[in-house]
């Protein structure tokens, strides 16, 4: 019965492209456009959750759950979707219970060309070496962006790609490239262990979905610099410049001044993404993009991070943009609400002044932006994307 029940819930989640949450004492919930919505069917009991968990959790993950109180794994739901599952044990009433979060992923990532990224991104992905960083808070689409980059590499090149993932959320079938996906805990114990194998693997590109620990950050920089590999990595956080600071501090705190200098030569770009609640019931990405031009490289070397912000505003040839400029544009063209732009802003006070007018809860008051907004590109229209030969900084 539990298997039939969870299959029905998963079918509902797939139809709505939504994440599913199961917690004792509550009805089943979906997250749509960033908001929780109850399915209004039944209030789940501790026994219900235990039976569902038993039906979908692999044996190895049950041992992990018993020993550590939580576990993460992924599974395919037929050919319709793949779900990343997080199970935690916690105190419920007078007993202990489990709660489940099932994150929805389509069977294949969207092609990189359809994501309306800054026009230089595909060219930067073709660089022979360097570190390309994807940053954002939890559930901001970092894994999906990385998967789209792997898909692009797979379609365009015949090299070898090694991925190191906490949980394999997208399965990449080889097209032109050879892809080896390794899951932590299943195929290798730690990120460091997997990186140690790269020297003999002959990889052209490495994908690390989660850079958190300082030693892992340093290892990624060293891979790109000393071994001259192309490294794509995800990192939790907010702001492209904050990410550069964090990379620099990791090198300095480990007394690796050579890597601190190498970072200015190795870092290719930082793409920061937030997923906003859209006005049309769909998530809307807002992005900040930093390309490491020679001037930016000099600022990193001198740790002059404040000047990087000025360079991002003044040099738009490479598609560089600040998150607040993008949020303002999205609010002005009606893609997101004014309050959403203010809440996501790096400086809410200035954002409120830029947008002007009353709160979304009030009547009247058109949104205004002192800077001209870019023309909005309809979904699927790639006409604003530059030619692949557009200038890319060396």
Radius of gyration: 22 Å
What proportion strand? 25-35%
CATH architecture descriptor of the largest domain: 3-Layer(aba) Sandwich
Extended strand count: 13
| Number of self-contained structural domains | 2
Helix-strand pattern, N to C? HEEEHHEEEHEHEEHEHEHHEEHHHHH
Distance between the termini: 59 Å
Please report the number of helical segments.
14
Keywords:
globular; 394 residues; seven-stranded mixed β-sheet; alpha/beta; 13 strands; disordered C terminus; 14 helices; Rossmann fold
Give a nutshell description of this structure.
By secondary structure, the protein is α/β, with parallel strands linked by helices.
Protein model, in words:
It is a single chain. This protein is 36% helix and 25% strand. The protein folds into two domains: 2-105, 2-Layer Sandwich (Beta-Lactamase), CATH 3.30.450; 112-272 and 290-320, Rossmann fold. The protein is built from 14 helices and 13 strands. With 394 residues, the protein is an alpha/beta fold.
Per-chain topology:
Blueprint: H1 2-15, E1 19-22, E2 27-32, E3 35-43, H2 46-56, H3 59-68, E4 70-77, E5 81-92, E6 95-105, H4 121-124, E7 130-136, H5 142-156, E8 160-165, E9 178-183, H6 191-196, E10 205-208, H7 214-225, E11 230-236, H8 240-253, H9 257-266, E12 267-277, E13 283-291, H10 294-302, H11 305-314, H12 323-332, H13 338-344, H14 348-355
Parallel strand pairs: 7-11, 7-12, 8-9, 8-10, 10-11
Antiparallel strand pairs: 1-2, 1-6, 2-3, 4-5, 5-6, 12-13
Helix pairs in contact: 1-2, 7-9, 8-9, 9-10, 10-11, 12-13, 13-14
């Amino acid at each position: 019965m539990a298997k039939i029940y969870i299959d029905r819930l998963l079918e509902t989640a797939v139809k709505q492209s939504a994440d599913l949450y199961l917690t004792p004492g509550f009805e089943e919930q979906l997250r749509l456009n960033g908001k929780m919505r109850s399915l209004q069917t039944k209030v789940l009991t501790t026994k219900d959750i235990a039976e569902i968990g038993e039906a979908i959790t692999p044996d190895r993950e049950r041992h992990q759950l018993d020993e550590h109180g939580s576990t993460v794994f992924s599974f395919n739901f037929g050919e319709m979707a793949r779900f990343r599952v997080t199970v935690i044990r916690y105190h419920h009433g007078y007993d202990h219970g489990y709660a489940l979060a099932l994150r929805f992923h389509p069977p294949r990532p969207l092609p990189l060309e359809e994501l309306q990224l800054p026009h230089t991104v595909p060219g930067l992905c073709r660089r022979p070496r360097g570190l390309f960083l994807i940053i954002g808070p939890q559930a901001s689409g970092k894994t999906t962006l990385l998967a789209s980059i792997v898909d692009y590499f797979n379609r365009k090149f015949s090299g070898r790609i090694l991925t190191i993932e906490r949980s394999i959320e997208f399965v990449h079938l080889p097209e032109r490239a050879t892809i080896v996906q390794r899951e932590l805990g299943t195929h290798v114990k730690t990120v460091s262990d997997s990186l140690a194998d790269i020297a003999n693997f002959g990889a052209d590109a490495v994908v690390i979905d989660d850079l958190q620990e300082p030693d892992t950050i340093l290892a990624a920089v060293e891979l790109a610099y000393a071994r001259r590999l192309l490294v794509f990595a995800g990192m939790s956080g907010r702001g492209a410049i904050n990410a550069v600071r964090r990379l620099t501090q990791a090198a300095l705190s480990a007394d690796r001044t050579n890597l601190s200098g190498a970072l200015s030569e190795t870092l290719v770009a930082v793409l920061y993404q937030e997923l906003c609640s859209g006005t049309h019931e769909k998530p809307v990405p807002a992005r900040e993009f930093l390309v490491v031009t020679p001037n930016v490289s000099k600022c990193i070397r001198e740790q002059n991070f404040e000047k990087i912000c000025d360079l991002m505003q003044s040099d738009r040839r490479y598609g560089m943009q600040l998150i607040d400029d993008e949020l303002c544009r999205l609010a002005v063209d009606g893609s997101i609400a004014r309050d959403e732009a203010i809440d996501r802003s790096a400086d809410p006070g200035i954002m409120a002044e830029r947008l002007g007018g009353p709160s979304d809860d009030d009547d009247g008051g058109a949104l205004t932006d002192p800077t001209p907004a870019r023309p909005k590109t309809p979904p699927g229209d790639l006409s604003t994307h530059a030619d692949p030969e557009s200038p890319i900084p060396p």
